[in-house]
Amino acid sequence: MKLIQSKSFSHSIIWVIFLFTAVPIGILALYNHPSVADDYCFAYMTRDYGFWEGQKLYYEGWSGRYISNMLFHATPLAFGYFGFVKVMPFLILALLFHSLYVLLGELIPTSRQNRLLLTLVFLSLYISQSASVLDNFFWYTSVFIFPISICYWLYLMAVLIRYYQPQYKHLQWGIGSLCATLVFFIVGSNELMMLFIVGLLASIWGYWLIFEKRIDKLLTILLIIGAFCAYFLVIKAPGNQIRMQGSVLGGNIVESLTDALKSVIKDGIKWTFLSPLIPLSILFIAWYQKFVPPSKSYLFRANPIITLLVLFGLLLVMFFSIHYGNRDGVPDRVKNAIFAFFLFGWFYHLLALMTQFPRFFAWPLNSQLIGFGLILWSIFFWYKSSNIQTMYTDIVSGTAKGYSQEMDARYQLIQATKRDTVYVQPLKNSPKSLYFDEIKDSPDHLWNKCYATYFNKKTIILKNK
């Protein structure tokens, strides 16, 4: 495909798409503020009870997410630094980029420049097509549950691959320890990732046992660590037990499984056919044929039918866990994580099929018209992305800037008010990219209590509109 084989043209297109996707994140970051949903609760707990005591109280009273609890209570907001949420989007974007770059380097033997371009495309696809840019970059509590756990997983896959490479044999003990640490972090980040990583490790371990006729020592250790941490540190955590008892579970296995199956099919169709995934896959195949030498890597020798069934099963389990415990549907922050693993699974199978059936993918894609059409097809879906349109709308309309100004004015009002009870005006600007929730007109609501406690007030309440 001559068009995409032109380095200057293809490289320019990729950089334009990435910048078109990432620049609004940087602009919106300047207008970001802590959310009343949870952010102030963790902040005042750390400030008033201490970093370790705050985690202990949450672990014993609400959640077994020991790593997320640690990150929540490490919030700079506890020390009065509101500006951290403006830095956070850049931080998580950099971590996603680096972890992707490292893993792609282990999967595809190509130049650093090509690896960089692949990373830009993959990251742009994830940002534009995920369920919510707010949960990926701007809400502190969500960012340090799901996007950060995706980074843990990407790094884990990269170092796990290196463990089995001859050039790293002298570092195996250190690499194995790093793998164990990352499993520990993933399990403690959230229940969805806990199920995913234990299920993935069990699937790989079982595949090697059945088809390779061997028990891998490192995988066995990682699986034991994952299962132990999942059961004894998360599921059996005092806070998790209280939380499960206090929540209204769906409890209907058949109905939840049916809903999960519907979600896999519905969202799978959406992610496949209503996104740039298909045209980008064709372009990737053409690029791979030209720039990457034929590979015989053990990573892609697995039976693709079996690995596809494993991927389907893992997606089903993740959706099931949410439907079973939440009859209100799947939150966007959860869909973001599931979509990420759908993308990785798609990418892996594409590489596996090209490795095992190279002749089938030896397509005569030399038409400049076809290449241009595929690029336009991809750009069309990027332009239609709700995340992209929402971010640019919030910026161009001035909603994001107005929101930031209103929040600054609110802080000044609260701090200037000498009374214990403060009434604040409802926000006129609520950008979808940045705004998650608001305090209520009831002083007994949790958000109001945390908000008031953080600002050392008895009550902060929203005026009736």
General description of the model:
71% of the residues lie in helices and 2% in strands. With 465 residues, the protein is mainly α. Strand 1, helix 22 (446-454) and strand 2 form a beta-alpha-beta unit. The protein is globular. The model is unreliable at 246-250 (pLDDT under 50).
Structure, briefly:
With 465 residues, this protein is an all-alpha fold. The protein is 71% helix and 2% strand.
List keywords for this structure.
465 residues; globular; two-stranded parallel sheet; mainly alpha
Strand content bin: under 5%
Number of strands: 2
Give the uncertain stretches in residue-range form: 246-250
Structural class by SSE content: mainly alpha
Helical proportion? Answer: over 70%
Mean pLDDT, as a whole number? 91
Shape: globular
Number of helices: 22
Specify Rg, calculated over alpha carbons: 24 Å
Ends apart, CA distance between termini: 59 Å
Q: Order of strands in the sheet with the most strands?
A: 1-2
Helix and strand pattern: HHHHHHHHHHHHHHHHHHHHHEHE
Sheet having the most strands:
2 strands, parallel
Oligomer: single chain
Map the helices and strands:
Blueprint: H1 2-5, H2 7-29, H3 39-49, H4 51-61, H5 66-73, H6 84-107, H7 112-129, H8 133-138, H9 140-143, H10 147-163, H11 172-187, H12 191-211, H13 217-235, H14 238-246, H15 253-273, H16 277-291, H17 304-325, H18 332-356, H19 368-384, H20 386-396, H21 399-416, E1 421-424, H22 446-454, E2 459-462
Parallel strand pairs: 1-2
